[in-house]
Amino acid sequence: MNNPKKIRSGLLIKKIITISLLLVVALIYTSCGSSGKSASVAPAASYSANQIKSDDNSYAEAPKAAPYPDSGYDGSGLGESIAFQEQVAAENIMNQRKIIMSGNVSIETLNFDESVNAMDQLIKDFGGFAETRNIKGKSLGSKALRYAYYIIRVPAESFETVLKSMGNIGTVIESSSEGTDITDQYYDTETRIKALKVQEETLLDILAKSTKLEDVITLEQRIAEVRYEIESLENKIKNYDRLIAFSRITVHINEVTDRTETKPEPVTLSERASRSFAQSLENFRIGFENFIVWLLYSWINIIIFLTVVWIVIIIIKKRKKRPAKNISQPKEEIEKAEDKTKEK
């Protein structure tokens, strides 16, 4: 039989060994944690020491490193990070949109020839082209002034710049722009093309395995229809790309005698009366000048017309004199006949 004292001493030794092992493990864990803390605190201590100035013991603000050097974001806060990500996402969405831009501009000019030359040069400078160019001149007897009509195409990235540059051609009376969003139609067409190409490949695989003449003829007809539809849709995509790449601007250039000015509405009666009087004088001057121009242009016709009128008046006067002579002659004959009868 075992001695109880030996058993108790053995258990005591085991307990002592177990406690010793636990203490050793705790010491090791504590030493590792303290070393980690000292390693992490050391740079902070050196950093704070660099912050101290030698003259007034004040702290200088440490420079911040920009984690996104290309974007300009300095990582100062979570709000700025979210705003930056939203901005990038919005730009990506806008880049994926398919928008056809168009504009309309009305211009008045005192120097018509210079404005037309400036318009032609503007188109060349921005790498565009004139889709329509129509210039109406002025005839000698016409009261209308000259007029130019343009439909131009310019690169889409220069659309806004071209609209702002129209002021160099003349006085811009009206300017408008409009965008047509064709994103849905564009991507639907692309999806349709991909589906048709998959269908074409499937038909080609079936055709390669077909042995009956009737099946071969039917498959070839269907493949031809699919290819025709694919080409039509691809041409549609190319047309979309051209319209998106080159924006359309319609330009009207009108020649005027006076530059259009924006004037405030008259308030008092004297202002309205003075405005009306000045306008009436201006209208009379323009009308008189137009009359002089017409008179110089039509003087030959006027002389011929007056000559014909003068001849007609002379003829009418002569015809009025002839009936008076014819009436006087019978009266004299009647008087002579009465005198003869009296003598008898």
General description of the model:
- The chain contains eight helices and five strands.
- The chain is of the alpha+beta class and 344 residues long.
- The protein has a five-stranded mixed β-sheet.
- Among the domains are: 101-177, Alpha-Beta Plaits (2-Layer Sandwich); 184-247.
Features:
344 residues, 65% helix, alpha+beta
Tally the beta strands: 5
Computed structural class: alpha+beta
CATH level 3 topology of the domain at 101-177: Alpha-Beta Plaits
Shape: elongated
Q: Any idea what the radius of gyration is? A: 51 Å
Largest sheet: 5 strands, mixed
Task: Give the helix tally.
Answer: 8
* Second CATH tier, the architecture of the domain at 101-177: 2-Layer Sandwich
Q: From N to C, what is the helix and strand string?
A: HHEHEEHEHHEHH
Question: Numbering strands along the chain, what is their spatial order in the largest sheet?
Answer: 2-3-5-1-4
Strand content: 5-15%
Percentage of residues assigned to helices: 55-70%
